[in-house]
Amino acid sequence: MLVRAINHSDASAWERMRQLLWPSAPGEHAGEIARFFSGDRRNPAEVLLAIDERGRAIGFAELSIRPDAEGCDSGRIAYLEGWFVESSARRQGVGAALVKAAEEWGRQQHCTELASDAELANAASTAAHKALGFPLLASRFRRAVCSGRRASVRTSKSRSPRDQAAVLCHG
Q: How far apart are CA 77 and CA 29, in angstroms?
């Protein structure tokens, strides 16, 4: 499996997977994808695609840069806006590979935190986030993206979601 930045020839596969993740009216995703490829890269700023051994797109991650996110303190946060893996490719490391590539993208963008969110009622999504080391902070998840350093997360029993985890970067 390969994870790489999306290109224009991937537009139909990206649209198909977006529709599975976020069902919408016909053509809505196509318009957003066209804007992305025409240079509107605010949200998402980047899209990573997972490609299987047969050359088929089996997952994607949409990323942005946010100035703030619940539980984050750095002021420049790589944000996992959308994360999808085809049902036939789940539990095979595809999601982990996409998140690892998202972290690397975040480091390249000079971010020290990667955040994401999930509906708490979506048990599969929250379990996937937790399995990849995202501590739950209310309805959002966060983990460190420390350039060239190890990171750990310290949790506390504070009642404030913002204070329930602290990212520690080790030199």
A: 25
What distance in Å separates the CA atoms of residue 68 and residue 140, rounded to the nearest whole number? 12
- In order, the DSSP letters of 21-69 are HS--STTHHHHHHHHHHTT--SSSSEEEEEE-TTS-EEEEEEEEEES--
Number of domains forming the structure of the chain? 1
Taking residues 14-22, report their average pLDDT.
Answer: 96
In degrees to the nearest 10, what's the CA dihedral of 65, 26, 99, 69? 30
Domain that holds residue 94: 2-170
Q: Which pLDDT tens digit goes with each residue over 81-136?
A: 999 999 999 999 999 999 999 999 999 999 988 888 877 788 888 888 888 877 76
CATH number of the domain within which 118 lies = 3.40.630.30
Q: Which two tokens stand for residue 74?
A: 């750095």
pLDDT digits (tens, 9 = 90+) for 53-76: 999 999 999 999 998 887 778 889
- Alpha carbon distance, N-terminus to C-terminus of the chain: 32
